[in-house]
């Protein structure tokens, strides 16, 4: 296992480190005790959709924590329903992300976590129409395309790097 002193992919402003991206089988990932969350890179045409997280004050990709009894796929489908209002959509499993997380809201300890990364393609969709069907407007307060906010608004550094895994 890599440590803090080894190479890594990306480090964010909070000190969290994106250690590696691995082609771990989705079923194996779902059974791993280090799995804590899943994220989705959402593409509309050639651009990426981001949501403004009002608690972290930055644009992010979509996803959240695994709930008891969920597989990684169950988690991302639920999260995309809550955060984007999506009901029927295709989800592509991209691989497993490994992170060194600093103490935060979820844990007072530094820790290694795994996350599942998924890709979703939406076609002919107006982001204003998506915002109207979002269920979790407490967390996601606005949507934007990456090309509109890149270098203009705060974007989670690790999430911005994750966009590269779904082309």
UniProtKB/TrEMBL annotation:
UniProt keywords (A-Z) are: Hydrolase, Magnesium, Metal-binding
Please state every residue range assigned to the domain named Nudix hydrolase. Answer: 31-167
Instruction: Quote the PROSITE patterns the UniProt record gives.
Output: NUDIX
User: Which is one GO molecular function term here?
Assistant: metal ion binding
Cofactor section: Mg(2+)
Which SUPFAM superfamilies does the record associate with it? Answer: Nudix
Q: Does the keyword Metal-binding apply?
A: yes
Record bears the keyword Metal-binding:
yes
Q: Pfam families, per this entry?
A: NUDIX (PF00293)
Similarity remark: Belongs to the Nudix hydrolase family.
What's the protein name? 8-oxo-dGTP diphosphatase
